[in-house]
Amino acid sequence: MTEAILQAQGLHKKFDEVYAVKGVSFDIKAGEIFSLLGPNGAGKTTTISMLSCLLTPTEGDAKVDGFSVTGEANQVKQAIGVVPQEIALYPTISAKENLQFWGRMYGLRGKHLQERVDATLDIAGLADRADGKVETFSGGMKRRINIAVGLLHNPKILFMDEPTVGIDPQSRRRILDTVQELNKLGLAVLNTTHYMEEAQELSDRIGIIDNGELIATGTLDELIKMVGEYDTVRLCLDVDGQKIEDVIEPLKSLPEVKQVSPGEDCVMIQVPDSENILGDMVGRVTQAGAHIRSLEIQEPNLEAVFLHLTGRALRD
Amino acid sequence: MKALTIAWKDTITRLRDWRAIVGFIVAPLAISAVIGLAFGGTFRAETAIQDIKLVIVNLDSGELGQVYSTVLTSDDLVDLFLITEMDDYEAALELVETGETRGVVYIPEDFSDELFANVSATDGSYNPVSVEVTTDPASSISPFIITSVVDQISVSINTLLLSGQVGVEQVLAYAAQLGPELAELANIVPGVIEQAATDPGANQLGLDVVQVGEAQQDISPFSYFAPSMAIFFLMFSMTDGARSILQEETRGTLPRLITTPTPFAEIILGKIGGTFLTGIIQFIVLVLASSLLFGLNWGPSPLALALLVLATVSASTGLGALISSITPTEAQAGIVGSSVTMVFAALGGNFALASALPDYLQIPSRLTINRWSLDGFVKLANDGRGLEGVLPEIGVLFVMAVVFFVLSVVLFQRRFVR
Fold first, then answer.
1. Does any CB of chain B come closer than 8 Å to the CB of residue A87?
2. Which of A27, A33, A313, B3 fits as disulfide partner to B269, beta carbons 3.0 to 4.6 Å?
3. How does pLDDT run across B167-214, given as a tens digit for each residue?
């Protein structure tokens, strides 16, 4: 059995009187990509901040490469590479100078530092822009340098906090490919995201986090099995928010419907066999005075899992 | 040492910014040069040689003491002096302390009797008799005017008494002729002083003018405003530099630094160190430029100058760090930093001589980095004092620096290590 590179046990974090993270426990094996999936404000960044020794847990502990985040922070910091959600770079100096600076912060010096700077510039695909000031880079290029900084000291595990937020699809694709290539070389990755597709594509295992609690952990197949054979029907209506409320009860009254979750102008309905009940659903919605703008039947996926576990759509 | 890496990165980043170079080096140099050229060779404001406020405390029961009042209040000197006569010497001195008057002329009891006794002495012995002149040390030229006029009156009295014209009428008549001559003193002060000092007859009767307290030399505007503007802009750059800690927090680079295996105190030390290095470079460039371009002499002791620069930059950096550590956002730190800089500059003498501030502002003035630093630079560049002369200023500034540093590191630690 592969040894765990990270073991989080009962992590809590309280800010003032509010718990941002409540008893989060999970582990990540060496060479594994683990994604924490959850909406904004779910506690993903707080969790990764505690694992990065940026925040001290209110309760609980975690071990990274065998070292405690609460008692052996310096050793933990040597083992981890951190890629924050923000572009945490110095914009007025070049990409190379940024990498040299951050390399020195990880204790790299001389020839070894230069080798690692060159290597990470290659990984980022920006060797030809090494001397360009970061402020002149596109959003995607900045993100790639942001990731390169986290790889400088050859960490055993890479923490990536929403690494693809706010970038174009092409850059996103490149980043995901890079992460997968690094993983093939044995690097473990903890990735936080609120993009279901990203978690689905990238991860060996996924933890679903909501309201500071880790509500499910497993592989994609294991999580989907939790939903069972339910389909998710997404009904979008030509009505305002008040009218959406009007269709909830009629839909819930159908005996086959397991769950109905309202959104801004769409309703997510979980049913075991969507094809047989579709007519009844449309009839109930029409009777309630609403007009259907679009209708989509989704196979079981992470969004359905999240809906199943929380009663809310992930995109909300 | 990682703190040095952080400090050097910050320094290089700042020095590559041409706006910072203009703001922190070119601007203070240009402003002090303009002010220096505008004032000419020395502070010779017209107000210094007109309407000089002077108090006469004449406790002499005889007539000779009256000569001083008569001459000083004569029509010829009416433009030069604004005379007030008082009986309470202590109260008069208090007015000098508070800057309400530029000087006090004190004629003691029995002044006339003792002088006449000296004249009458047949054995050639005499008792020293003094007219005490106290002047405002903060003033530049009025002390010389006052002392010279009083000196000249005393020399005249001496001359008359020696010539045997000891009658009061004769003395008063002669003294009245002094007016036009004395009115010209403003233009010939150095010569008069020299003449009075070398006149062999001046002290033959033991009549002397005693300068009480410290009279200040003229201050060259450039030697005042070059360090003054350097300190003023240094305060700006130091509060701005320390604000970069908050900028790093906003940008996300500070949290990232904390996730590297670097102790937090070393990160803060590096950040403050970067600001400190920038300040040192800023001051060195200003010292060199003002010396080479404008011929300003920064004093006889390079060691004293170096220590004073170090102390000033340390204290300013510490203050900037403290301001950043107690303000929640970068924008607020900017507002508070600028406000503190302006208030400190006004109190500390960056815009006008701090010693001329009213008494109730002297203590607040003494609490500013600017005042201690500027006093030190004026002592070096203007008064030609050495290391010993500016040790108090250097000591106070270093104490301020240590207090500010310790407080800011503790407050930053509380803020960022959660």
1. yes
2. B3
3. 556 666 665 666 555 555 444 443 433 443 344 444 444 555 555 554
What is this structure's pTM? 0.69
User: Does one domain contain both B354 and B327?
Assistant: yes
ipTM of the complex: 0.84
Instruction: For residue B255, give the nearest of A78, A84, A90 by CB distance.
Output: A84
Which residues sit opposite A159 in a β-bridge? A82, A190
Q: Within an 8 Å CB–CB cutoff, is residue A84 touching chain B? A: yes
Q: Cα–Cα distance between B105 and B245 in angstroms, integer? A: 57
| Confidence band, pLDDT 50/70/90 cuts, at residue A246 | confident
Please indicate if any CB of chain A lies within 8 Å of the CB of B384: no
| Domain containing residue B71: CATH number | 3.40.1710
Q: Is B257 on the interface with A (CB under 8 A)?
A: yes
Residue-range definition of the domain harbouring residue B300: 2-44+221-416
Contact A135/B at CB under 8 A: no
What is the rounded (10 degree) CA torsion for B82, B85, B88, B92? 10
CA angle B235, B237, B240 (to 5 degrees): 105
Do B132 and B248 reside in the same domain of the chain?
A: no
CA-to-CA distance for B129 and B108, rounded, in angstroms? Answer: 9
Q: Out of A84, A93, A104, whose CB is closest to B13? A: A93
Put simply, the answer to whether A105 touches B418 (Cβ < 8 Å) is no
Query: Each residue of A24-65: pLDDT tens digit?
Result: 999 999 999 999 999 888 999 999 999 999 999 999 999 999
Shared domain for B18 and B116, answered yes or no, is no
Q: Is residue B15 part of a domain?
A: yes
Are the C-beta atoms of B385 and B367 separated by less than 8 Å? no
Question: If you average pLDDT over residues A244-249, what whole number do you get?
Answer: 82
